[in-house]
Design goal:
With 350 residues, the protein is an alpha/beta fold. The chain is built from eleven helices and 14 strands. The strands form four sheets. Strands 3-2-1-4-5-6-11 form a seven-stranded parallel β-sheet, sandwiched between helices. A three-stranded mixed β-sheet has the order 12-9-14. It has a two-stranded parallel ribbon with strand order 7-10. Helix 1 links the parallel strand 1 and strand 2. Helix 5 packs parallel to helix 6, helix 7 crosses helix 11 and helix 9 crosses helix 11. The two termini are 21 Å apart. Bound molecules: uridine-5'-diphosphate-4-deoxy-4-fluoro-alpha-D-galactose. The site of uridine-5'-diphosphate-4-deoxy-4-fluoro-alpha-D-galactose (UFG) has 21 residues, from helix 7 and strand 8.
């Protein structure tokens, strides 16, 4: 199958591209590289032996998108491209609404024009806001609490309307919990630009010594140790779910929504201890007040994805953190360090 991957140079996009290539799909990537560089594509080539076809540009660029659909026999789209920082979205909501929503509209219009109706959309557990009880089920009420989360929710609703008016659309809306980890090779991983805002990239930099200590945001939640609990999922397991979703929507036209998580939660303190084990480093931390907008606990019920997609997260928390640590050690500057200086393993396990 020829698949268009928007945002394919990003964290989840790059891991998914690797799997698609390994499954013999043809991948065409469009990415504006606003939060990335060309380097992940070179790393994808180092892992798979194949350089995906790549167009640098915005998904909102209708002409570019049309050119891609004219040139390639696109059969399905995985739509990752979008801005994803909660804090940034609060500071500049218009940029978030414009970037995330306008690009999806142009994408869907172009798909429809070229009779491509199979779409996998990268959504988020952020659509549940602080409404849901745990474990979180797909049919629980949605209510996003940040402009970022609202863009995801609005896009989900747009896709629902689209499917309601034209049943040729077959759509999977994938609600990610907390993706972490990296490819086993250490060649691709999460590359936060500037100060990381997510827990695991922050822990990695504290373990490296490039940041002094972790601020634990709140120890007075209604959880066993008082710190926040999240459902951390290995990015390679997440990539696997995208590939299975593609197959599923091809055989089951409809509008589908899946939680992607492990079904288990870990607290911030548990994560610190597990990261110490994975890295062999001590992580200094101090307790701070709660971070605004955070919820106490969130973990998925992932049974629907298991039943329908035949997918289940396989990798343990230790694997997630060992892989995150390997990526960090091999790439202390993220993708800034070119591949030439990196050892390339001859054979990689997945
Ligand atoms: N945390 C800290 N210190 C830090 C960073 C995080 O204590 O420096 C805590 C948070 O308070 C939270 C947990 O670690 O309890 C996880 O925080 P992350 O920032 O890693 O992840 P979030 O659950 O806040 O956010 C993630 C994605 C969002 C998405 C959300 C959906 O990053 O994009 O899940 O649930 F919206």
């Amino acid at each position: 199958m020829t698949i268009l991957v928007t945002g394919g140079a990003g964290y989840i996009g790059a891991h998914t591209t690797v799997q698609l290539i390994e499954q013999n799909h043809d991948v065409v990537i469009i990415d504006n590289l606003s939060h990335s560089t060309i380097e992940p594509l070179r790393r994808i080539e180092a892992i798979t032996g194949e350089m995906p076809r790549f167009y640098q540009g915005n998904v909102q660029d209708r002409q570019l998108l049309q050119l891609i659909f004219q040139r390639h026999n696109i059969e399905a789209v995985i739509h990752f491209a979008g801005s994803k920082s909660v804090g940034e979205s609060v500071a500049d909501p218009l940029a978030y609404y414009h970037n995330n929503i306008a690009s999806t509209l142009v994408l869907c219009q172009t798909m429809s024009r070229f009779n491509v109706f199979n779409l996998v959309f990268s959504s988020s557990a952020a659509v549940y806001g602080n409404n849901a009880s745990v474990p979180v089920l797909e049919n629980m009420p949605t209510q996003a609490t940040s402009p970022y989360g609202r863009t995801k929710l609005m896009i989900e609703q747009i896709l629902e309307d689209l499917h309601a008016t034209d049943s040729r659309w077959s759509i999977a809306r994938l609600r990610y919990f907390n993706p972490i980890g990296a490819h086993y090779s250490g060649l691709i991983g999460e590359d936060p630009q500037g100060l990381p805002s997510n827990l695991v990239p922050y822990l990695s930099q504290v373990a490296m010594g490039s940041l002094e200590q972790l601020a634990v945001f709140g120890d007075d939640y209604d959880t066993p140790d008082g710190t926040g609990i999240r459902d951390f999922i290995h990015v390679v397991d997440l990539a696997d779910a995208h590939q299975k979703s593609l197959h599923f929507i091809a055989g089951h036209p409809g509008l589908h929504t899946f939680n992607l998580g492990t079904g288990r939660g870990h607290s911030v303190l548990e994560m610190i201890a597990a990261f110490e084990l994975a890295s062999g480093k001590t992580i200094p931390y101090t307790i701070h007040p709660r971070r605004e907008g955070d919820i106490g606990k969130s973990w998925a019920c992932a049974e629907l994805a298991k039943a329908k997609l035949g997918w289940q997260a396989k990798r343990t928390l230790q694997q997630m953190l060992q892989d995150a640590w390997r990526w960090q050690l091999q790439n202390p500057e993220g993708y800034e360090q070119p591949l030439l200086n990196q050892p390339i393993p001859l054979r990689m396990a997945s």
